[in-house]
Structure formats: C-alpha cells, structure tokens
Write a structure and sequence with these properties.
Layout: H1 3-78, H2 87-114, H3 117-142, H4 147-172, H5 180-184
Length: 194
C-alpha cells in the first residue's frame, strides 16, 4: 500500500473514530439532560400536588376551627356573666348551640379524613370539650353555684382549640426551601464518573 493511501486510511479511520466518540458523548449528554429535565418535572408535579394537598388540609382545618369558635360563642350565649338569663333566652341559645354543634360534626369528619392522626385526635378533643362546655352551661343555668365547673370546661375547650390550631399550623406549614443547587446542579451520570 502506498504512503498516500496509508495516510488517507489513517485519516479516514481517525475521522470516523472522532465522529463516533463525539456522537457517543452527545448521546450521553442528551440522556443526562433528559433525565435532569424529567427529575425537575417530577419535582414540580410533586410540589404542585403537595401544595394542593396542603391547601385542602388548611381549608378543612380553618372551617373546623371557625365552626368551633361559632359553637363556643353560641354556648356562651346560654349563660351571661353576672346576669340572669331568662328561660326563653336560654332555650333559644341552647337550640342555637346545638345547631352549631351539629354543623361542627361534618367538619370534624373532614378533619379526620384529612389527618394526620395527631390533628384528628385534637379535633376530637375540641368537639368533646364543646359538648362538655355546653353541658356545664346548661347546668349553670339551673344552678348558678356551678359556675366554676363551666369556667373549667371553657378553659379546657380553649386549651384544646389552641393545641388543635398549633398542630394544624405545623401540619400545613411550608417546609424550608431546599437549596437551588439541589435542583439545578445535576449529579454526574455514572457513565461519565471517573
């Protein structure tokens, strides 16, 4: 074989090898970029799902606590501090308190579904405390000397509400943002790792 043919053959082989290596590196880079984009899209979808779930939970918690407050106010109308409530006013307030309590139970079910278990248990405590407070308000209407029992029941209900709100707030709190580098700087693909 002549020198010119040998040089042409070597040049052709090195050109083909260079093209093959370039194509291989391009393929690896493209696969790496595709995986990175898929990870980012998965993170975005996961974040959107978490935000939606967090919003649904928050709405359930807010509805529940608002209804619990309305119920407590209705119970408070059954007995007025330092004033004698007429039987008619008491009965109207008692009916109103029962209606508010009945409106609370579907929201309690919603909180129990949304969870987590700790928040659901605290919501149950709030509902039970409201029932107890209502019973003590009825007792106080008949026996004003039982006011300390009503005060204790009101404090217990208030404490149960505070614990529920604290747990609900912790549950729906947005987690601390991760570093941008966690999302933007991809890990080296195993094919290129040295």
């Amino acid at each position: 074989m002549s020198d010119a043919a040998s040089i042409a053959l070597i040049t052709a082989l090195s050109t083909l090898a260079g093209a093959g290596i370039t194509s291989w590196l391009s393929l690896l880079t493209h696969r790496h970029q595709t995986r990175h984009q898929e990870r980012l899209m998965d993170l975005e979808r996961s974040g959107a799902r978490q935000d939606q779930y967090r919003t649904e939970r928050k709405d359930a918690y807010v509805q529940f606590i608002n209804q619990a407050v309305r119920t407590a106010h209705a119970i408070g109308e059954m007995v007025k501090p330092d004033a004698q409530v007429s039987e008619e006013s008491y009965l109207d307030a008692a009916v109103q308190a029962q209606e508010r309590l009945a409106e609370l139970y579907p929201l309690l079910a919603l909180v129990n579904i949304e969870g987590p278990e700790e928040v659901a248990d605290l919501a149950d405590r709030v509902a039970n405390a409201l029932v107890t407070e209502g019973a003590k308000a009825s007792k106080m209407h008949r026996d004003p000397e039982s006011k300390p029992e009503l005060v204790a029941a009101s404090r217990a209900r208030w404490q149960a509400q505070r614990e529920f709100v604290r747990a609900a707030r912790d549950t729906v709190a947005t987690p601390a943002p991760q570093s941008e580098n966690d999302f933007l700087v991809p890990a080296r693909p195993p094919e290129l790792a040295s």
